[in-house]
Design brief:
Blueprint (H helix, E strand, L loop, with lengths): L4 E3 L3 H8 L10 E4 L4 E6 L7 E7 L17 E3 L12 H4 L1 E16 L2 E22 L2 E9 L12 E2 L1 E2 L4 H5 L6 H4 L12 E4 L20
Parallel strand pairs: 4-8, 5-8
Antiparallel strand pairs: 1-2, 1-6, 3-4, 6-7, 7-8, 7-10, 7-11, 8-9
Length: 216
């Protein structure tokens, strides 16, 4: 599961990392939570990549009630293509979700969980899907099995798309989900480190630099 993440890179850094022509100003975020607007990069057919803000929590196009988005913040990459909520989006509406790091919680005992901040030295991207519902654009993050860095902390991790595969993931003409499965391999993720951080991050109302500071 990926239920919180951070994006502290500057707009210029995001533009450079993802080959964007224009990225509007935005503040650093240290504790991004579901239902909030998040940065998304998509590429419509025959168009350049574009930066968008979308609500985190996917509302399928067929939904009658937008509250379904509260429960659709993650989708398992292994089965997303089989699920009614995601099978159209994984063919036609894939996106990149920029991040500087993400949080997972390690169970210490029955009542205690230790948060970890998992980061890289440069901006990276989660594999995402997006939908439009009554002019509201929403998105979801795909998850996969953990690699050796994440496994001691949590049993799932977000799918991280390597820069070499951004073009493939965003390619409108690739509509066969099985062709994309090799992109989900967690062992392709290099340079990830896990740092214990303060329980400040437990509250979605706390969005400060202290959230990502390693514990001494």
């Amino acid at each position: 599961m990926c239920g919180r993440f951070a994006l502290t890179a500057t707009p210029d850094e995001i533009a450079t990392a993802f080959g964007l022509q224009n990225v509007p100003p935005f503040p650093p975020r240290y504790n991004i939570a579901p239902s909030q607007p998040i940065a998304v990069i998509r590429q419509l057919q025959h168009q350049p990549r574009e930066f968008r803000l979308m609500q985190w929590g996917l509302i399928p196009g067929w939904a009658k009630d937008p509250s379904i988005g509260n429960n659709l913040i993650n989708a398992r990459c292994e089965t997303a293509h089989e699920k009614p909520s995601f099978r159209s989006a994984i063919k036609y509406r894939r996106c990149l979700i920029p991040a500087s790091g993400f949080y997972e919680w390690q169970k210490v005992d029955k009542s205690t969980k230790q948060p970890y901040y998992l980061r890289m030295q440069q901006p990276f991207a989660f594999a995402g899907l997006w939908e439009s519902w009554h002019d509201i654009e929403t998105c979801i993050i795909l998850t996969t099995q953990p690699n050796e860095v994440v496994a001691p902390v949590h049993q799932r991790m977000p799918v991280i798309i390597s820069p070499d595969n951004y073009k493939v993931w965003l390619d409108f003409d690739i509509q066969t989900p099985s062709y994309l499965f090799h992109l989900f391999d967690p062992d392709l993720v290099q340079g990830l480190s896990a740092l214990p951080v303060s329980t400040l991050v437990n509250s979605p109302t706390v969005d400060r630099p202290e959230c990502i500071e390693p514990m001494l």
